[in-house]
Amino acid sequence: QVQLQESGPGLVKPSETLSLTCTVSGASITDYYWSWIRQPPGKGLEWIGYIYYSGSSNYNPSLKSRVTMSVDTPKDQFSLKLNSVTAADTAVYYCARHYYDILTGYYTDAFDMWGQGTMVTVSS
Amino acid sequence: QSALTQPAPASGSPGQSITISCTGTSSDVGSYNLVSWYQQHPGKAPKLMIYEGSKRPSGVSNRFSGSKSGNTASLAISGLQAEDEADYYCCSYAGSSTCYVFGTGTKVTVL
Q1: C-alpha separations of B17 from A28, A53, A101, B5, B63 in Å
Q2: CB-based contacts of B61, cutoff 8 Å, min separation 6
Q3: Which residue, B5, B46, B51, B102, has fewest beta-carbon neighbours within 10 Å?
C-alpha cells in the first residue's frame, strides 16, 4: 500500500526558510513524478512544483524564485524548501504522486496519491 | 496565471444529479484535454476522481463523469449520496511554464 508522509516544522518565522520532507513507502521514488501542493486555511489548492528522481523539476512561476525541490533516492524521500516566507505562505502542505496510467503506459497530469498534509504557520 | 473559475456552492437531493463547471481560458482548459477533478472532505487530503477530462481511476464510482466544451470543463455527479457532500476542485495543465492551475473549488451539499 502506497503511503506518503509529510514532515517538518509546523511553525516558521517570517523571512526564514520553510523546509518539508515527504517520505514515500510502498512505491519506488524513481518510478514516478512527485509534486508539492498547498492549501491556505479555508482556501483552494495551489500547485507549488514537481520533481523527478533525475532532478528534473518545474515550479509554479509565482513561487519559482523562492522554491527549491530535491530528491533523496536511497531514502525514498523528496523535499521542499521555500525561502523568505511571509504570512501568506501559511497553509497545509501536501506531497502528491503523479498518476501513472498503466493502461496507456504514460504519466498523467493528475495526482492520485496524497499525503495527509502538514500545517505550516508563518508567524513570529 | 489565474485560478480556474468554479461556482461557489452547489446542492442537490439524494438521488438527483448535479453538474459542476470549471471555466478557464484558451491557455489551459481550452488547449489541453488534461483536466482532473478532486473530491475533498473536511480535514482530509483531496482524492482523484477524474483525469484527462473524462477518465476514472480504478475504484472511483461510475456516478462521476467528466466532460469538456471549449474553455469549460464539467464534473457530473449522478445519484447523489450523502457521502458525496464535499469540496470539489478542478485542475488543468496549462503548458510547460505554468504547469498546473487549480479551480476555486465548489462546495457540494446533499440536502
Answers
A1: 40, 42, 28, 21, 9
A2: none
A3: B5
A108–B102 C-beta distance less than 8 A = no
Sequence-distant (≥ 6) Cβ neighbours of residue A101 within 8 angstroms: A107, A108, B51, B55
Contacts of B104 in chain A (CB under 8 A): 44
B102–A contact, CB cutoff 8 A: yes
Q: What is the pLDDT of residues B56-95, one digit of tens each?
A: 999 999 999 999 999 999 999 999 999 999 999 999 999 8
Contact B36 A115 (CB under 8 A): no
Regions in chain A scoring below 70 on pLDDT:
none
Burial environment of residue B46 by CB neighbours within 10 A (0 to 12, 13 to 18, 19 or more): buried
Using CA atoms, how far residue A105 sits from A91, A99, A101, in Å, is 34, 11, 6
The x, y and z cell numbers of residue B75, run together, are 464534473
Tell me the count of A-B CB pairs closer than 8 A: 67
Identity (one letter) of the amino acid at A50? Y
**Which are the contacts of B44, defined by CB distance < 8 A and separation ≥ 6?**
none
Does A61 reach chain B within 8 Å, measured CB to CB? Answer: yes
What is the C-alpha separation between B96 and B88, in angstroms, rounded?
25
